[in-house]
Design goal:
Blueprint: H1 2-23, E1 54-60, E2 66-72, E3 80-86, E4 95-97, E5 103-106, E6 113-116, E7 124-130, E8 139-147, E9 150-156
Antiparallel strand pairs: 1-2, 2-7, 3-6, 3-8, 4-7, 5-6, 8-9
Length: about 160
C-alpha cells in the first residue's frame, strides 16, 4: 500500500512540475497582443513614473520606409520592448518588417507592432516600418522593460513623422 502512495505522489509532483514550468515560461516569448491598446506588458506592476533612460527615434529612408530605433541614453540595458506606430486618431497603422534577431513582428492588427524575442539584454534595437497605404502624421510609441518589475510605457518619439 505504501508503494502505491509513493508512485501517486511521484506522479503528482512530476505533473505539478510540468504545469509550473509551462506557467513560468518567460514572458519574453509570450505574445503581447493583449497590450496593443494599453501598452502595458501585463506584469502586474505599475509602470515607472520617472523619465525613461531610453529614446525612440524614427528616420525616413530613401525608399519611403522608416528605420525606428530604440536605444539607451545612459548604457542601461533592457530585456523587453514593444513598439507601435499610431496615427493622430490613436489607431495603429502601417506594418513593421526587417527586424533583427532579438525582435519579432506581432499582430495589433497584423504586422503593426514589434516586440522582443527572448530575454537577452540589449542597449539598442531597430526595425523597419512601412506606412503601406497610410498617408499622414504618425508617432511611434514604445514600452521598454528593464526588468520584470521595472518598465516604462508610452515612450514616444519626439517628432511626428509626416
Amino acid at each position: 500500500m505504501m508503494e502505491i502512495n509513493s508512485r501517486a505522489l511521484c506522479r503528482t509532483v512530476v505533473l505539478a512540475m510540468i504545469a509550473l514550468f509551462h506557467l513560468a515560461e518567460p514572458f519574453s516569448r509570450n505574445d503581447l497582443t493583449p497590450a496593443c491598446d494599453s501598452m502595458m506588458p501585463g506584469h502586474g506592476f505599475q509602470p515607472q513614473s520617472s523619465l525613461p533612460p531610453f529614446q525612440l527615434v524614427a528616420n525616413r529612408d530613401a525608399d519611403g520606409k522608416y528605420t525606428v530605433t530604440l536605444s539607451t541614453l545612459d548604457g542601461t540595458k533592457f530585456e523587453g520592448f514593444f513598439i507601435q506606430a499610431r496615427n493622430q486618431n490613436n489607431a495603429q497603422v502601417g506594418a513593421f518588417q526587417d527586424v533583427g534577431p532579438s525582435a519579432r513582428i506581432i499582430g495589433c492588427p497584423p504586422g503593426s507592432a514589434v516586440q522582443h524575442d527572448g530575454k537577452r539584454k540589449k542597449t539598442q534595437v531597430s526595425a523597419r516600418w512601412d506606412p503601406q497605404t497610410y498617408h499622414g502624421p504618425v508617432q511611434f510609441r514604445a514600452t521598454v522593460v528593464k526588468s520584470y518589475k521595472t518598465f516604462w510605457i508610452n515612450l514616444n518619439n519626439d517628432q511626428v513623422v509626416p
